[in-house]
Amino acid sequence: MTYVHDAVVVGAGINGLAAAITVAQQGFSVQVVEAADELGGACRTAELTLPGYRHDVGAAVIPFGAVSPFFGEFDAARYGLEFLHPLVPAAHPLDGEEAILFERSVTDTAAGLGDDASAYRRLFTPLAAHAQPLFDQFLGPIRPPRHPLLVAGFGIPALLPAAALARASFRGNRARALFAGLAAHSTRSLSRPATSSVALMMAMTGHVAGWPIVRGGTANLITALAARLADLGGTVETGRSVASLNELPAARVYLLDLMPRDVERICSDALPSRYRRRLRRYRLGPGVFKLDWALHGPIPWKDPRCARAATVHLGGGFDEIAASEAAVAGGRHADRPFVLLVQPSLFDPSRAPEGRHTAWAYCHVPNGSLVDMTARIEAQVERFAPGFREVVAGRHAMDTSALEASDPNLAGGDINGGMFSLTQFFLRPAPRIPPYTTPNPRVVICSAATPPGGGVHGMCGWWAAQSALRTLRASRAR
How much is the average pLDDT of 144-162? Predict the structure, then answer.
C-alpha cells in the first residue's frame, strides 16, 4: 500500500494536537482532520454575549496544564503563549464568615482553617514536596511505580471517598468545605470511592504551580500548538467530518481524538465486534450547565478577598456541597448547586472593554439534561455577592445539548471525557495495556476517554502518541 501520511489524527482538540505534535517531533508526517471550522474543541474563545467581551467557550482555568510534562516541553514564549497566575488559585466564600483562600502556600492556606491548620499541613506538606513524581505517575496509564512508597502514601487515601477522608482528616467546617469544593471537580458523589484523589490532585497543582489562565483566552493556547505543529511540517484540514476511516488519506496509523461511541462508529470495518461492544458500554459522567456574563463592573463579593482569585467555589459548607453532588449522581437537579465560577478579566483586561468584566460559571447536572439552571446559578452568586444581578450587562447560557453541539466530545455535557468511576479511572475506554491501543495496531485512541482523563494537559494525546510511535517505528524498520 502507498501511504499518503505516516499518521492522520482525527480531531483537533487539545489531545489531538498534542498527539500530532509528539509524532511530528519524531520526524513522521502528520495530518490533522477536524470536523469543525476552527481548532480547539472545548478550548475556544468567542464573543458569546456582547461585542468586545471574550469568553472561553469551554475550559478557562488549566491547573493540570501547569504541571503537564507535555506543556513542560513546550516553548510557550516562542509562540506568544502567556499563562497568567492569579494572586490566589481559588477562593471559597462561606455564609456569615470570612471566605477560605486556597493559597499557593500550604502554610498560608492552613492559616485560614482555624483548628484544622495543623491537620491541613500534615496532609498536604509532604504531597506538595513530592508532587512532581506523583504527577508523573498519575497523569498517565496505570503502570509500575518508580517511587512505590511515595505512590502508596498518596494512593491509599486517594482511593477513599472524599466524604470519608474529609471527616477523618478535619474537624471543622472550613477545612471540610475547602476539601469538598476540590473534590467536586470529580463530578461524582463525594461518597464514591476515589473521589479523594481528585481533591488531592487539585490541591497539589494549586500549591505547586497555581491555577493559571491564558492571556487573551484559551483559544490562544490552541493557536500556539497549531503554530508548533506547522513548524514541524504537520498539516491541518478543518470542516471535514469523518464517517469512516476509509474516507481518510491512507496512513500507517490513525489517532482518534474522539469519544468511544464515535470511535466505534467510524471504525466499524477496522475493529472487531467484541471490542466495539466494549466501547458501547463506556459510561459517561454528569454534564454541566454553563453561563457566561458580560459585566458592567467586577463581581461585588461580600468578602472582597474573593477578587484575588480567578476561580471561586460557590456551595457553602461541606454538607451542602455533598448534597448537591449526590443529587446530580442520583439524576436530580440540586436547588442549591455547587457552582464553579471564573472571573478572568480581573487578571486579563484584554477579555472585556476598559472598565468592564467577564465571568463564567457552571454547575453539574445529569447527563443530557435540558433544564435551565440560570436562576439557580445566579442565586448562588447573589448569595455571596449581593447586587451581582445589577452588574450583569449580558448573559449566554449553554445546556448540555449546546455544549455537545460546540464539541461532540462533550457527550451529554460531560466535560471529563467519561465517568471517573474506580474501574474507568485508569482502564478507560476499555481494559487494555496500554489503554490507548485497540485490537488494530493502526488505530489508536487519544481523547480524554483515555488516561488520565479530562483536563487541559495534553497527556492523553502524548501517551497515545507513544503507542502510535511504536507502530510507526516498526513500520519504518520493515
Answer: 86
Helix, strand, coil percent values for the chain (each to nearest 5): 40, 15, 40
C-alpha distance from residue 319 to each of 64, 116, 173, 179 (Å): 27, 17, 9, 11
- C-alpha cell at position 337: 448547586
Could you identify the residue written with the cell 508532587?
Answer: 131
DSSP string, 381-413: HHHHSTTGGGGEEEEEEE-HHHHHHH-TTSGGG
DSSP H helices in 130-183: 131-138, 148-158, 162-169, 173-183
Q: Cell numbers at residue 223, please?
A: 493557536
Question: Measured in whole angstroms, how far is the alpha carbon of residue 289 from the centre of its chain?
Answer: 15
- Which domains does the chain possess? 5-81+214-282+417-477 (3.50.50.60), 83-213+286-406 (3.90.660.50)
pLDDT: which is higher, 118 or 72: 118
Say how many Å lie between the first and final Cα of the chain, rounded.
13
pTM (2 d.p.): 0.94
The predicted-structure confidence for 333-343, as pLDDT tens digits, reads as follows 999 999 999 99
Residue 380 to residues 60, 120, 168, 303, 365: CA-CA distances in angstroms? Answer: 20, 27, 28, 15, 15
Please, are residues 429 and 449 in contact by the beta-carbon 8 Å criterion?
yes
Tell me the DSSP string of 262-309: HHHHHTTTTS-HHHHHHHHTPPP--EEEEEEEEESS----SSGGGGGE
Q: Distance (Å, rounded) from C-alpha 303 to C-alpha 426?
A: 40
The 10s digit of each residue's pLDDT in 353-391 is 999 999 999 999 999 999 999 999 999 999 999 999 999
Other Cβ atoms less than 10 A from the Cβ of 333: the count is 18
Provide φ and ψ at 460, rounded to 5°.
Answer: -60, -45
pLDDT tens per residue, range 219-269:
999 999 999 999 999 999 999 999 999 999 999 999 999 999 999 999 999
Query: How large is the average pLDDT for residues 103-122?
Result: 97
